[in-house]
């Protein structure tokens, strides 16, 4: 049996025993986690998710991906170059079991991304990037009422 699950903005087709590299999850090596965003199990297709389905996995390790180098050179601009590197943080998991139903009562910890866990613990939304512009709302504009003397 196979399942299609969604985590970290990507979709994966998985089978029991398969090892996956997914976006970083808030879990320690050796922990058992459960993916609840299951789009398909065997021949059952969800609308958009399959109700009661889940995929259980064991965390093997927290790793970094291969280095990606971003090099920019502007032509006809003397010595205008920039090099930036990035290594994505990943979690290595082994799929242990695919549950077609009854996943909500399994008692296994849900798989949560590391970034969303930090914002949930802080109780706030993620901060906007410096210089980012958004809509004007009452919260971020000055009061339009009369000025007090």
Automatic annotation (TrEMBL):
Alphabetized SUPFAM superfamilies for the sequence: L21p-like
Key words, A-Z: Ribonucleoprotein, Ribosomal protein, RNA-binding, rRNA-binding
InterPro entries: bL21-like, bL21-like_sf, Ribosomal_bL21
Low complexity composition bias: residue spans: 119-132
Domain of life: Bacteria
UniProt keyword RNA-binding present: yes
Family assignment from sequence similarity: Belongs to the bacterial ribosomal protein bL21 family.
HAMAP family in the cross-refs: Ribosomal_bL21
Record's subunit section: Part of the 50S ribosomal subunit. Contacts protein L20.
Name of the protein: Large ribosomal subunit protein bL21
Organism, as annotated: Rubellimicrobium thermophilum DSM 16684
Lineage: Bacteria, Pseudomonadati, Pseudomonadota, Alphaproteobacteria, Rhodobacterales
């Amino acid at each position: 049996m196979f399942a299609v699950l969604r985590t970290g903005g990507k979709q994966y087709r998985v089978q029991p025993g398969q090892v996956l590299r997914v976006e970083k999850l808030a879990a320690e090596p050796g922990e058992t986690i459960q993916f609840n965003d299951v789009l398909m199990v065997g021949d059952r297709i969800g609308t958009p998710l399959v109700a009661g389905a889940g995929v259980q996995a064991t965390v093997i390790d927290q790793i970094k991906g291969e280095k990606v180098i971003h090099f920019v050179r502007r032509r006809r601009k003397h010595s205008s170059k920039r090099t930036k590197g990035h290594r994505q943080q990943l979690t290595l998991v082994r799929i242990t079991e695919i549950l077609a139903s009854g996943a909500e009562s399994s008692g296994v910890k849900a798989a949560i991304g590391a970034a969303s866990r930090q914002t949930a613990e802080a109780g706030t939304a993620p901060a906007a990037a410096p210089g980012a512009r958004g809509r004007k709302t009452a919260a971020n504009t000055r009061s339009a009422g009369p000025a007090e003397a």
